[in-house]
Here is the input.
Amino acid sequence: MSKHNKNHNQPSHSQPDAVRMRIDKWLWAARFYRTRTLAKEAIESGRVHYAGSRVKTSKEIAVGDELQIRQGSATAMSEKTVIVEALSAQRGNASAAQQLYSETEESAERRAYYAEQRKLSNLARPDNKPNKKERRDLQRFKNNQD
Here is the structure.
């Protein structure tokens, strides 16, 4: 049998494409990241975990798998634990993307708690900067404390 007689339309693995897909493509389709390149960078930097450990970009996931995804900046980092509900190779609108996963109850509670804590920490800040008189009063108060 020559190599020209092979059917190149057949996938090289035994499972159909609808059963498993690459994690970077799924993260992009589920709208966790705007581009596949950003999803790849997040995976490589360790912000995406599968079964509690880091994964490679080429890791194939299936329905029912649990992922831990960290997003945001260092000051407003949020971590989600999601369960893969469906696979899609195409990026759809936001409502279609939400059908691809479900967030665990503990993850939603933890994110709500941290969001509340961030709001409370911002309440201690004044609404405006002190004016010249208030700065002088603060300076006098600090000097009298010593």
User: Anything to note?
Assistant: The two ends are 92 Å apart (CA to CA). The helical segments are 23-29, 36-44, 94-98, 105-123, 132-145. Residues 105-123 form the longest helix (19 residues).
